[in-house]
Amino acid sequence: MKLRVGIPKGSLQEATLQLFARAGLPTYTNGRSYFGTTADPEIDCMLIRAQEMARYVEHGAIDAGLTGLDWVIESGLEVATVSDLIYAKRSRGKVRWVLAVPEDSPAQTAEDLSGCIIATELVKVTRDYFQKKCVDVRVEFSWGATEVKPPMLADAIVEVTETGSSLKANRLRILETVLQSNTQLIANKCSYADREKRRKIDNLALMLQGAMEAQDRVGLMLNVRKGDLTAVLGVLPALQKPTISHLSDDDWVAVNTIIDESAAWDVIPRLKEARAEGIVEYPLNKVVL
Predict the structure, then answer these.
(1) Which residues lie closer than 8 Å to 183 by C-beta, 6 or more apart?
(2) What pairs with residue 72 in β-bridges?
(3) Separation between Cα atoms, residue 218 and residue 239, nearest integer Å
(4) Which of 12, 28, 122, 215 could hold 8 in an S-S bridge, CB 3.0 to 4.6 Å?
């Protein structure tokens, strides 16, 4: 049994390959080929543009793939959503498709753009957005560099952003959010109905989620006298509840927990002040909740 998985080519490619590696599934691609292999002999991969991923998954050319919710909605195709994976090109957050106009535009809302030209890659979603508002606009497909279209080639744009910095650099002002999106693992419905392929796809989702949960977190191990345990627990911002184990000395216990890596700078000195000893910080590969 071979599982064919689509890797989004382009802006998400490097972040996705890094995520696969952290999940324990290194993926090997050739710069001159769109096909690749993984450390699992039962999983092959193919580089496909995120905009086209849903089409090839729905047709069954590939069994599963990673793409944005935005492109799934834009395609209008029927695929199985296996898992939400909240990461983007630069961050672990969602992205937004926003309606933006030039800084000096008189428009303050979508309704102010009646009769105007809107440039975007997300044509269907944008048309539906304005139709629901009963605003008559002309939506034109943009092949890229959408931020430079206003005001000469379009009155406004609908463009994806993580931070808004590119829009500001092009002197554009955000009016409204059209759609929030995040990366998803999607699957062909027939493939997902197959018992063996579903098991493999679900395992992939589990390991990818585990790698994401571990990102920017660290583990902490420490020893503490039972009399000081309450003070130590008051310092720990635990993921759930810390694991407490008895030691050979009945007066002492071991504490094991997970914290945000950024918190370690503040937490470890406070643990020492609370009389914890043998404090060890260690990296995490995966956290499976």
Answers:
(1) 8, 12, 16, 66, 67, 68, 69, 84, 85, 86, 87, 88
(2) none
(3) 11
(4) 12
Q: Specify the length of the chain in residues.
A: 289
Rounded Cα distance, 250 and 77, in Å? 62
Residue 166: its pLDDT value, please?
Answer: 86
CA dihedral over 184, 60, 11, 35, signed as positive or negative? positive
Task: Report pLDDT digits (tens) over 206-221.
Answer: 999 999 888 889 999 9
| Measured distance CA(118)–CA(212) in Å, rounded | 36
Intra-chain end-to-end CA distance of the chain, in Å:
28
Query: pLDDT by residue (tens digit) across 111-157?
Result: 999 999 999 999 999 999 999 999 999 999 998 889 999 999 999 99
Residues linked to residue 138 through DSSP beta bridges, in sequence order:
117
- What are φ and ψ of residue 286, in 5° steps? -145, 145
How far apart (Å, rounded) are the C-alpha atoms in residues 24 and 135? 49
